[in-house]
Amino acid sequence: MLKILHTNAGxxxxxxENRILIIAKHLNSEDLKVSLAISPNNPLTAxxxxxxxxxxxxxxxxxxxxxxxxxxxxxxxxxxxxxLHVHRSTDHWIGVQAVKLFNLPVKIIRTRHNYTxxxxxxxxxxxxxxxxxxxxxxxxxxxxxxxENAHINPSKVVAIHSSIMIERFNEGINAxxxxxELNISSDIPLVGMIGRIRDHKDYPNFxxxxxxxxxxxxxxxxxxxxxxxxxxxxxNLAEELGIVQDIFFLGKREDVPEVLASLDVFVLSSSVEGSxxxxxxxxxxxxxxxxxxxxxxxxxxxxxxNGILVYxxxxxxxxxxxxxxxxxxxxxEKLGRNAKKTILENFTPSVLAYxxxxxxxxxxxxx
Length: 367
Known about the structure:
The chain contains 14 helices and 13 strands. By secondary structure, the chain is α/β, with parallel strands linked by helices.
């Protein structure tokens, strides 16, 4: 049996945790076992245990947390893992120390989830080219960037887009639950964005677009689902723009399928992205999407076919895309129909899982 251990230094639920859960859930079998070594505070821990996925407690403070190095070394050694699959910079460095300092017979795989530059210094050259056996990127554009600009050996890199828990998202979900909660009738257009309230999501872009939409479509309402370090700043901006009365800030929600079901248009205004799960969740529910053409998004959305792509940092273009969909029912239905087809054909959990399994088997052949 091939044994794989995933580590993840995060403490929040995000697309990274969602991807790990899908891989572990779909690949555990008689010939392959996937386990996790993560913080007990990470929401992934509880979700993994519900799926009977083996979890080891591993809290990582920073890249030189030698207590975490020793604990990870003991887990790898005691349970005879063949492959260590790391997901963030912090646990990547901890994993390399645990394997290389103690000369463990363990192969290392790193997934690069974000479209952020790798500094091409000597330490990163060693980390990726010498100490890491395979790198997975969540989009082709990220693969291109790290091979060309960070000088990582192209033969070590493979692109595999993220997937979503498709069974959670379907068009049969109650579309009126959220509208009833917010006291919004079915004839009022509702436009929403879901995601952590952080710099790279560029919520100011979305809010400024909302103001422009209101100028021609005064009855439209908006909602934002998520929390983050810029919560107060974004709420203050909505007030400054004079649209706070038209925006519902719902905070962190567990009922994302119900939120998406209530929307007429889903928006993602990010300045940086990898392969965002939330776009795929909206698409598989048949929702028309307006998104910025950054990172791996153009590998998912074809402008005018299964969604609308606009330049980043351009509220006017974002607003134009939203208005086009709201004013053209035929376009809205076409985009939603094609969006769902795209996800069901290309971004299912089984596609992600078995492409990842191919990577594991390829790395295992080197053992």
